[in-house]
Design brief:
Blueprint (H helix, E strand, L loop, with lengths): L7 H11 L2 E2 L8 E2 L8 E6 L2 E6 L3 H5 L2 E5 L5 E5 L2 E8 L17 E3 L3 E5 L5 H4 L12 H4 L9 H15 L3 E5 L10 H14 L4 E4 L7 H9 L3 E3 L7 H7 L8 H15 L4 E7 L5 H14 L1 E7 L16 H17 L11 H4 L5 H7 L2
Parallel strand pairs: 1-5, 9-10, 10-11, 11-12, 12-13, 13-14
Antiparallel strand pairs: 2-3, 3-4, 3-7, 5-6, 6-7, 8-9
The structure holds iron/sulfur cluster.
Iron/sulfur cluster binds next to strand 9 and helix 12.
Protein name: MSMEG_0568 family radical SAM protein
Keywords: 4Fe-4S, Iron, Iron-sulfur, Metal-binding, S-adenosyl-L-methionine
Cofactor: [4Fe-4S] cluster
């Protein structure tokens, strides 16, 4: 029999890496199949922490963890049929019912984050031999569940509704990479300006490093409060294998862009997403994280979750021992540097639901 983890951060790490089988899904709960960002997940609240738990992945179907909705109205987490604890699951947000003419251009991540992919096409994805192998950006477009380009007006409309109806606290705008040298910064600027004119909502923009550093100031001036530029993997050989197109932008080029971005957005308001479990060693991730923290960049390390329909759908997720060997020392490093997720104004690092990093941060504070 599997032992139930003793600490909150260990439990969350197990759920994120192994996934959960939902025995009797309920219609009023919101889950997500396909698309960019955390796909194949359901937002669950475990001991007061929102976690995006994989439920549609291959490993979730084999997971020892189960969730059951009981007749009493309670939702309970089980491990190998042994009750572990009561949890709660995010309900469908009210703004989903208020669609724009073209459908819903954004989704709720966790419980208080609005997230959207502004441009659902990507130069890296057009040539499948060069595409990032973990990415599902084309799936929701192919399925007709989203549109290729969300206009600034649509985004402003949904952001206002999400704040008014569901008390959303911050917003993430990501984008596929267009062919221009701005690498997506231009459409983030246009979108941010329209959103900020409609509603006072902290915004994170996510794009590749723009060709000209002047875009950092333009994004800030348009109302983007925090910026994510995502390395995904840290070792050159792993990057070349997993993301042959995007790996053409080297880690060194990212480091230059990070320094330029921190000069504009401030220490701790620039972050990067690192997917652990794709081949980078814990030592490689921690070593680069140290460099990033010195620059004032928050390294948001998340366990890789294999998404259905991508080339990596059968790739194993990392186990919780592997994740703990990274997140525990990383939490200590972040505390020592006074670089905390709770100080980030908007975005994935502030939300934290795709990783147990912030729980490790709190546990080692
Ligand atoms: S961490 Fe980022 S991608 Fe994950 S749920 Fe939160 S906002 Fe979405």
């Amino acid at each position: 029999m599997q032992n139930v983890p003793a600490t909150r951060q260990q439990l969350i790490t197990e759920l994120l890496t192994q996934g959960v089988q939902v025995i009797n899904p309920q219609q009023e709960h919101v889950s997500r199949h396909g698309g960019a960002g955390p796909s194949d997940h359901q937002a669950m609240n475990i001991d007061g922490v929102t976690v995006m738990v994989p439920i549609y992945t291959h490993s979730a179907h084999r997971s020892p963890w189960q969730v059951k909705h009981e007749a009493s109205g309670t939702t309970r987490l089980y491990n190998l049929s042994i009750p572990v604890k009561e949890i709660s699951i995010a309900h469908k947000p009210r703004f989903y019912d208020r669609q724009t003419a073209d459908g819903i251009p954004a989704t709720l991540h966790g419980t208080d984050v609005l997230a959207t992919t502004v441009l659902q096409t990507c130069i890296r994805y057009e040539n499948r031999a060069k595409a990032c192998q973990f990415c599902a950006i084309g799936q929701s477009l192919a399925a007709g569940s989203t549109i290729a380009r969300k206009t600034p007006q649509q985004l402003a409309e949904v952001a206002k509704a999400a704040v008014e109806l569901d008390s959303v606290k911050h917003m993430v705008m990501t984008t596929g990479t267009p062919s221009g040298s701005d690498r997506g910064a231009r459409i983030l600027v246009e979108s941010a300006a329209a959103i900020k004119a409609a509603v006072d909502l902290p915004l994170q923009g996510q794009c590749e490093p723009p060709g000209d550093a002047v875009w950092f100031q333009r994004m800030k001036d348009a109302g983007i409060d925090a910026l994510g530029m995502h390395l995904e993997a840290v070792t050159p050989a792993v990057r070349a294998r997993i993301m042959p197109g995007k790996a053409q932008v080297s880690v060194e080029q990212y480091l230059i862009a990070f320094a330029d971005a921190v000069a504009v957005f401030g220490r701790g308001q620039v972050s990067t997403y690192i997917l652990a479990g794709l081949g980078d060693t814990p030592g490689a991730i921690l070593s680069l994280s140290e460099t990033l923290i010195d620059l004032g960049v928050y390294p948001f390390v998340v366990p890789f979750v294999p998404i259905s329909g991508t080339p990596l759908e059968h790739h194993a997720a990392p186990d919780s021992t592997f994740m703990t060997s990274i997140l525990q020392p990383l939490g200590q490093m972040l505390n020592a540097a006074n670089l905390r997720s709770s100080d980030i104004k908007a975005g994935c690092g502030r939300c934290g639901a795709c990783s147990s990093l912030s729980s490790f941060e709190q546990a080692t504070a």
